[in-house]
Amino acid sequence: MIELNRHYHDRGMKKWAGFYLSEHTAIIESAKTTRRKENPQKPQMSVEEISTLLHHAQLKVIQVSIQLESVDGEGRYDDDVVGQVAGYDELGIYINREKVGYDEIRHVELYQPLKWSDLSAR
Questions:
Q1: Which of 55, 41, 39 has its CA nearest to residue 110?
Q2: Which residues contact 36 (CB under 8 A, 6 or more apart)?
């Protein structure tokens, strides 16, 4: 046994390189797609238009898609906040469980989810 240990050279972390490489490349690819994705700027809506649409969506229990005013460091808009209006207070509304301030809202539209049958037409 002692003779075997003298001749065996453990490669250490090199033997795990294939495992780390596949995970690493998957993370890099997902980061690339996230960076490439750009959400177009939607037109600024007035307070009256926003409140009318939100009120309608809450009464009819329709999902909404809200584009926020905030942009990242490169001037890109984040993904829209999508969901049903769950409630509101004097500072903002609740979409599902996320609070969105009234002053943060840029654009609101009624959300039409894609059906699986529509995906095959693309």
A1: 55
A2: none
Q: What is the DSSP letter of 99?
A: E
pLDDT in tens, the chain (122 residues): 556 566 666 666 555 555 656 777 788 787 777 666 788 899 999 999 999 999 999 999 999 999 999 888 888 888 899 999 998 899 999 998 899 999 999 999 999 877 777 766 55
Q: Are 108 and 53 in contact (CB under 8 A)?
A: yes
* Topology (CATH level 3) of domain 47-117: SH3 type barrels. (2.30.30)
Task: Please state the domain extents for the chain.
Answer: 2-36, 47-117
Q: To 10 degrees, the CA torsion angle through 56, 57, 59, 60? A: 110
